[in-house]
Every structure is written in C-alpha cells, then in structure tokens.
Amino acid sequence: MPARARTNGQGSPYDHTHRKRRAAMVRAALGTPCPARYSRNCTGLMTNPRLMHLDHSTPLALGGVHGDRIICAPCNTSAGATLGNRLRGARRHPRRRLPAW
Asked: Is this prediction's pTM over 0.70?
C-alpha cells in the first residue's frame, strides 16, 4: 500500500478536506459525551480539541466511509488496535512434541 502524501509543512498525513471536515465536527462536538467509550482512559466528556479524532463508524478496512464522527483519542486508538488484532487473528504456534526417550 502506498504511503499517504504529506500535504503541509508540519508533516501531517491528512489532506485539506480531512482537516476541514475535522475542524467543523470538532466545534460541534465540544462538551458532548464521547460516543464510543471503547477505552478505559476515556474521560467521557470531549473538552480538549487536541484529543478529538475524526473517526470512521465503520472502518475503511470493512467498507466504511471517510471520517463521519468525532471521538476522543484514547477511544480511537483503542478501537483501531482492537480491530487490527481481530483482523490479523490469533497466531498460533504449532505444539512442539517432546522427543520420546
């Protein structure tokens, strides 16, 4: 998969439309409860714009659309890690057989 294009001088991997959509949704979400509550570190109330992420209610890997809601950063990272673990599946190592002495 090709890397995302970096569009601004600060090294942000997100394009202008993503940043514009996030800015509009963050203003509307300030002071509201986090809709996800996936993480133990979730404070419940979204008050800090720096800790709010544009999220996909249905992940892109499963056919979702680009950023359609705002959730807190701990919930977003926790949900992404959980999904990645589920998609990869548990890697099982074959049982080693002990030699019969």
From this structure: no
